[in-house]
Prior knowledge:
33% helix, three-stranded antiparallel β-sheet
Amino acid sequence: MPNTPSTRRIRAAHTAATITVYQAFPPAIAGPAAAEGRFPAAFERDRMTWIKPSFLWTMHRSDWGRSAGQERVLALEISREGFDWALERAVLSAYTGRVHESRAAWKRELRQSPVRVQWDPDRDLRLQPLDHRAIQVGLRGEAVRRYADEWIRRITDVTALAERVRLERDPALLPAETPYPTSAAVAAGLGAATA
């Protein structure tokens, strides 16, 4: 299926003030993060970190929290203000002619931006690819610092939920992910549809 904006729409659990993203970590990071509501010193701020609003895409990426180094799945409620800041500065991880002025301009933007976005097929309860895409947001440099120090409102360990969903495959267990609103300008930069 072509990667048209209609297949690229941010879907997430969100409120008027927050959006929930997911990450999977080893216990040494996830345990203290969930207990204290912030990342411990072991969290590497100098590396790019990827946040994912799609619960099932996170399950695909972490094999339901069973992959080495991804044994604990965290739901992180972050401020919409912070997430929107990231989207406004995001550059697609792959060149797209209908989004970028030129390949050279895209490469320049990619080097300068603290935020990278990629779209991958979202997943169903059996982790099979769907027709629509899920967004992954990569944060580095200033974006990682803002994420870790300013945007996080609550961290919840959802590893038990991941296992329950894996075993029961009950859609009623899934977080309610609905279209997340973005401005036309941000959506255009992401090659996405507005909510």
